[in-house]
Design brief:
3-stranded antiparallel sheet, elongated, mainly alpha, 49% helix, 125 residues
Length: 125
């Protein structure tokens, strides 16, 4: 199934709850930490810090520390981070076009009894 894949770990971490939202928040340009907290209602400072660090490590975001007391810190999408905007827009368009189908499938699934447990061999035990 994975023939031809040279990597063992996923190179992208955009599937997390906050990464794609942060990318959208930075789409218009650099923002300070406190400016990100407002549109990302519900994110804790710890999770925002961890997510930004992860995105910086992966090269999706740049962090710039300016002068002043306290120092001004800005976060901005890198060129690599900006390259995700087009595929994200395609995903949003797909979701908008297929939302009724997704909702119907979820509703139908919830109306069915719980699926039978997997055989032991399939669970790897």
């Amino acid at each position: 199934m994975f023939t031809g894949c040279s990597h063992h770990t996923s190179p992208l971490r955009i599937g997390g709850k906050w990464t794609a939202r942060i990318i959208r928040c930075l789409e218009a340009g650099p923002r300070r930490f406190s400016e990100l907290e407002v549109p990302l209602r519900g994110i804790t400072p710890k999770v925002l810090t961890e997510t930004l660090r992860s995105m910086e490590r992966d090269g999706l975001v740049t962090r710039t520390v300016g002068g002043g007391i306290p120092p001004r810190v800005d976060y901005e999408l890198s060129a690599l981070g900006r390259s995700l905007l087009t595929p994200m827009a395609a995903c949003c368009a797909w979701a908008a076009a297929h939302l009724p189908e997704l909702e119907d499938a979820r509703e139908a699934y919830e109306g069915n009894p719980a699926p039978a447990p997997l055989p032991e061999a399939a669970t790897g035990r």
